[in-house]
Amino acid sequence: MRREKVFNRSLLILAIMSIMLFAMTITASAASGRAVTNLQQTDDTKTGVTVQWSGNYGEEYLVYLSQDRSSGYQALSSYTSTSNKKYIYNLQAGRAYYVIVQTYVNKQLVGQSDPLQVITTPESVDYKSIKQTSGTKNKIGLQWNRVSGVTGYVVAKISGSKVEAQYNVTTNKATVPAKAGTHYSGYYVYSYKRSESNYIALGYGQSTGTLYSAPVNPQYVADAKAGTLLWSPAISGNVITIGWKANPNYDYPTGYQVQIYSLNGKTRLYTTKATTKTSVKINNAKVRKAINNKGFKVRIRAYKKANGGAKCWSDWSAFKTIIPQACVKKSNVTSVSSTAAKVTWKKVANTKYYLVYYTKNPYASNVKWTKKKVSAKRNSYVIRGLQAYKTFGVYVVPVVKVGGKTYRGQACEFVKGYIKRYYR
Description:
The protein has helices spanning 2-7, 9-20, 233-236, 285-291; strands at 32-33, 37-44, 49-54, 60-66, 74-75, 85-88, 96-105, 108-112, 116-119, 131-135, 139-143, 152-159, 162-169, 173-177, 183-184, 187-194, 200-202, 206-207, 211-212, 229-231, 240-243, 255-261, 268-271, 279-282, 296-305, 311-313, 320-322, 333-337, 340-344, 351-359, 370-375, 380-384, 391-402, 405-408, 415-418. It has 424 residues and is mostly beta strands. It folds into four domains: 29-119, Immunoglobulins (Immunoglobulin-like); 127-212, Immunoglobulins (Immunoglobulin-like); 229-322, Immunoglobulin-like (Sandwich), CATH 2.60.40; 330-418, Sandwich (Immunoglobulin-like), CATH 2.60.40. The termini are far apart.
């Protein structure tokens, strides 16, 4: 992971410093004599630091180190050096130390710097502990184990050599923006430590793995034309199968959940368990009784299972109103002449009128249906112009008004009838 630290280090540190600058405080004893100037930390590793300063010709230097600002300083060498740079090693990761530089001329001590706090590279975040904890349509939550001694963390999105986004936090949690139905890669979590002089020691970046937002809800929910609604009152009563199709323009969800409400939307009748299938069969007695010759409202939500096991749920979809077709059993279709048949159905609540559809050839490759409008007061219709000894097809769709809105019943089946020679 060294690469992630090196190529974007300056950009990450600059962003951290921009929000930390106001908090910078330095308390140190005054420099004495011909003290070096511009004493600063220029690099860090887990076991060492590099310091540098500005000096003058003819000067020599001796560097001291301590873990305490005011006492305990030990010389790092038994002799002075003309170099204005010092690498200090054998240190511990994520720790703070203090450095003093003494100035010598002709072997005589002529000055001493203020103590400078220096810091080593902190331990990295444990990549195994990074988990996605949540995901909605517009944000993703992350969490990881704390790293001892750090100032904070950076969650950054890296693309090549570019830092596309960066979020600085002081706790082991973060949220990043997202769009519904989208997954993200290239996010890394960095630990960092800040010194009194505002130097930033940045840990190595650890990948979050793929992140997921909440999915986009599916399409064609309980749509007979799309083949996602099976409700055949004449065959299976009020046992219904509700299906849907995932939106191909977004990440596919891991699973789904469906709720059934009464037709007026006031009473929740049933909530399914989460399922990874793309349809659910509902055979609940309470539901069957409530929807009988009426209809119901349905809504759906979806989830994506993220790294760490979190289920990222979408919002519930808007309600969809489902009205059944009128129940026409085969025994309700009878010949009344050699060229006519009577079809009878059960009335559907809230109907404004019925639409009777029939075809003279249900076996044709391109079936043509004739439509007839029938008053809501009636529950039968005589189809004329048929042929003896020929099979025809028929189904009835109610048009209802609920809550001030008009809905058509969904046709899932049709009944085949047969004209026999009719004798008076």
